[in-house]
Amino acid sequence: MKRRWTKKVGLLVAILFEVFFISFAGINVRAEEGDENVDVSQANESEVLGASYKVGDIIKFGHYEQDGISANGKEEIEWQVLKVESDRVLVISKYCLDSKPYNTEYTGVTWENCTLRKWLNNDFKNAAFTSAEQAKIPTVNLVNKNNPTWGTAGGNNTNDQIFCLSLEEMESYFGKYSWYNSEYMYGYNQNLICDATQYAINNGAYTYTITADDYNSLLKDYGYTSAVIGRRGAWWWLRSPGFSSGGACYVGTYGNAGAGCVYGVSLSSRAVRPALFLNLNPNPQSINLNKTSATMYYGDSLTLKASITPADADKTVTWSSNNPAVATVNNGTVKATGKQAGKGTITAKTANGLTATCEVT
After folding, report:
1. Which 8-state DSSP code applies to residue 147?
2. Average pLDDT in the 14-35 region?
3. Where does residue 59 rank: exposed (0-12), middle (13-18), buried (19+ CB within 10 A)?
């Protein structure tokens, strides 16, 4: 018993050193009491958008170098579903995909101005997704709150396609901590442990492989299961500000996180776990009609059909006529009214504003 307690104290000291020395402090905010841990151990896997998803499912979308062997090409990216809406899902990468500093220069910075945000929405986006895939990623408005413990300014809200989760989002989607330290106000959650790809490790991502001794002497008491043994957890960025504007929040190798778990923004050994919304019915990229001109007489009718790409795009079309005295249109069916001779333009318009026309005489 004495030996087990000694190991437990030693490991706890090491973890506190990791949190406090690099982070300046160990303050954390609990998740809401109503939140439940997300069980992703039995996640379903799908490659087809438009299917019915649930929290914890795995979606394959895009490609990025992951095994560290560039000669065999990029690997498919796996995404874990965090939230399901009527027409889109919020996902986060199953693995930490790369290693980047929050900001290349050690200085006071917010998410709005950090280099990590620029990299995600430019370099990473273009490397991981084709133009057709990028069209399925909507731009969303992110709320960047102040640090809930220290009050460090979170800066302006931002519009992003790809982003890091905030502290509040992380706590909401991954659930409450299984163990919580009321003195130092930080917690542990097994679901937050994230392995890094070999490519991320090659690029400098710090990882730690959890041992059986780690589990038996500490993590077991924190409510973890033995499944964590052998997991090579990485440190991964959150976008929330830290103890000061020169630091940012993170998730540690053991799944430890909180408002006080912060470190310098310029550290390059921290991994990146991107998040994004994914449209189940993405915006159309083009619309074409089966006819671009037609001659009609009183009483004639004509059926126009709209072809929209990509195949899984939103097929909503609004039809209109600029001269109803010549011809009217209802859901693609054009009728010559006979009220007057002349010309009219029938327009089909997609939900995102693309148009195609047919000139009717």
Report:
1. P
2. 34
3. buried
Contact residues for 182 (Cβ-Cβ < 8 A; gap 6+): none
From the list 119, 144, 133, 152, the residue with the least C-alpha distance to 272 is 119
DSSP state of 117: H
Please, are residues 66 and 202 in contact by the beta-carbon 8 Å criterion?
no
The whole-angstrom separation of Cα 171 and Cα 36 is 10
Give just the sign of the alpha carbon dihedral 48, 50, 54, 60.
positive
pLDDT tops 80 at residue 16: no
Q: What span, in angstroms and rounded, lies between the C-alpha atoms of 236 and 252?
A: 7
Residue percentage of the chain with pLDDT more than 90: 70
Name which of 31, 77, 85, 49 is nearest 258 in CA terms.
31
pLDDT in tens, 157-173: 999 999 999 999 999 99
What is the reported pLDDT for 311? 79
Residue of 249, 120, 271 lying closest to 194 (CA atoms): 271
Q: What is the mean pLDDT of the chain?
A: 86
And the tokens for 276? 């994004």
How far is Cα 131 from Cα 124, in angstroms, rounded to an integer? Answer: 13
Average pLDDT of 225-245? 95
205 is written with which tokens? Answer: 């991502």
Residue with tokens 């006979």: 338
Do β-strands 98-99 and 271-272 pair in parallel, antiparallel, or remain unpaired? antiparallel
Sheet of strand 162-163, all strands in order from the earlier edge strand to the far edge: 45-46, 58-64, 75-84, 88-93, 275-279, 162-163
Q: How far apart are CA 356 and CA 240, in angstroms?
A: 44
Distances (CA, A) of 194 to 93, 264, 272, 308: 9, 21, 10, 39
Q: How confident is the model at residue 244 (pLDDT cuts 50, 70, 90)?
A: very high
353 pLDDT higher than 60:
yes
- Least trusted range by pLDDT, from 41-55, 245-259, 323-337: 41-55
